[in-house]
Design brief:
single chain; mainly alpha; two-stranded antiparallel sheet; two-stranded antiparallel ribbon; 18 helices; about 65% helix; about 0% strand
Length: about 475
């Protein structure tokens, strides 16, 4: 069978060989916390300031637009995850519905979403942790606080947190998910503290003019775009993460119910929090100040400006303590994507080994951790963010397309969860993602996204197209 026609049969979606089967240990509280843990992270703590500097008060619309697109994607993910409760997320759905070649493109793009984003969050965490370390008397040389891309030698704090998260994931899925619940509660408490204090200094006059840079996307000359859409393309990084829940499908008990709650519940909760935080941040401080040098920790800066020194230190400490949950979920998701691609033969199958004692892919988790640590140690956060967004947009389009294709190809197949108005929500997701990609992302990002996938196709035709399990079965 030609590679463009090869699809995995729907009815054997979960019929992996026992040695390559992941252990089901998760329930819906773990999944909701996993979604919130991935979504509420460096994005809201860091990109609120970046977005306000690019769009002014209209950053609220930027968050709402991203929330709308992600909500449509969340419904599509919930349908596909309950229909195909196997590890691999968008890659796996594409393999069953769209075929092996497109599945490879999606899986290769997901590397940008999970691995690159995990590295970006590790760098963001290091930016919050460094002042606390210095205040505690840890005089780390400046060259060890920045990667080579930003004029340093190595980002040592980013390396340390990446290594710690890798070890936690190796310990076991349920153990790391339980720790994640605690971390999520800490950072939600910090955001509630910020909202309560910022509300006391809220001034509606700061919302005029509402869109000082317009509603489109105008290049700012520094790799980003001004305007509401320009900010949306950046703050989109703050939203995704709920799709990491779908990578846990194979390790979820009663996936039909628990995956639906985990995906949609975490998305709804986080959208509400994001819009509230953005509105209160702009209402508490003029948007012009967000374009200054305090974008690394804007919420902390706002509290300091409001003479809430103790609260600012609490929020800063909560970020340092809780943001690793984002790295944990993203690295978890990437290790499962890698694992399933290896199990399918698109990567060397020797990598698809499962620890008998832990029921987790220890080898692939270690490899994922090593890649994240290397990237976090060397790369520039500002460049990383948009690359991750490009990979995410690709995955969202693929999942929405899978929903539509299956509605035409197999409308009678029983579905545990049905996307409401699928012929409306799925196209909105596709059009919205393509719009953000074409209009919001910079030319630099789009070019390198194409280059990245071209390199991936070279690897696919050199290895996966001939070594995949479906290719060998056909032969």
């Amino acid at each position: 069978m030609a590679f463009w026609n090869r699809r995995k049969p729907m009815d054997i979606a979960t019929a992996a060989d026992d040695p390559h089967r992941l252990k089901a240990t998760l329930n819906w509280p773990h999944l909701v916390a996993m979604g919130v843990g991935a979504i509420v992270g460096t994005g809201i703590y860091t990109l609120t300031g970046v977005g306000a500097g690019l769009a002014g008060p209209a950053v609220i619309l930027s968050f709402l637009l991203c929330g709308l697109i992600c909500a449509c994607a969340a419904f599509c993910y919930a349908e596909m995850a309950t229909l195909i409760p196997a590890a691999g997320s968008a890659y796996t759905y594409s393999y069953h519905v769209l075929g092996e070649l497109l599945a490879w493109v999606v899986g290769w793009s997901l590397i940008l979403e999970y691995t690159v984003a995990a590295a970006a969050v590790a760098v963001g965490w290091a930016g919050h942790a460094t002042p606390l370390l210095q205040a505690a008397g840890w005089n780390i040389p400046d060259r060890l606080l920045h990667g080579v891309a930003t004029g340093g030698l190595i980002n040592l704090p980013a390396v340390a947190i990446g290594a710690a998260v890798t070890l936690l994931l190796i310990a076991g899925t349920r153990e790391s998910a339980t720790v994640n619940i605690l971390l999520v509660l800490i950072k939600l408490a910090a955001l509630l503290l910020f909202m309560a204090l910022a509300a006391q200094s809220f001034d509606a006059a700061r919302f005029t003019p509402f869109a000082p840079f317009g509603y489109g996307a105008v290049p700012d000359g520094h790799g980003s775009n001004f305007g509401m859409l320009g900010a949306a393309a950046i703050v989109f990084f703050a939203f995704y993460g709920f799709d990491a829940v779908s990578t846990a499908a194979e390790e979820t008990q009663n996936p039909g119910r628990n995956l639906t709650i985990g995906i949609i519940g975490s998305m709804a909760l986080c959208t509400t929090i994001y819009v509230a935080v953005a509105a209160l941040a702009v209402g508490a401080m003029p948007y012009q100040l967000f374009s200054k040098a305090h974008n690394a920790a804007p919420l902390v800066y706002i509290l300091q400006s409001l003479h809430r020194g103790l609260a600012a230190r609490i929020v800063a400490a909560a970020v340092v303590i809780a943001i690793p949950s984002v790295i944990l979920v993203l690295m978890y998701g990437q290790s499962r994507i890698f694992f399933v691609m290896a199990r399918d033969g698109l990567l060397p199958q020797s990598l698809a080994t499962v620890s008998k004692s832990r029921g987790t892919p220890v080898l692939m988790t270690s490899i994922t951790g090593a890649v994240v640590i290397l990237m976090a140690a060397t790369l520039d956060l500002n460049r990383i963010v948009e690359f991750a967004n490009a990979g995410t947009l690709c995955a969202f389009v693929a999942v929405a397309a899978c929903v539509l294709v299956l509605r035409k190809r197999d409308p009678a197949r029983p579905r545990i969860f049905n996307t409401p108005a699928p012929w409306l929500l799925a196209p909105v997701c596709i059009v919205g993602c393509l719009f953000l990609f074409l209009i919001g992302l910079t030319t630099f990002t789009k070019i390198w996204f194409v280059v990245w996938n071209a390199l991936g196709l070279v690897f696919y035709f050199a290895f996966g197209a001939w070594r995949s399990r479906l290719a060998r079965a056909s032969a």
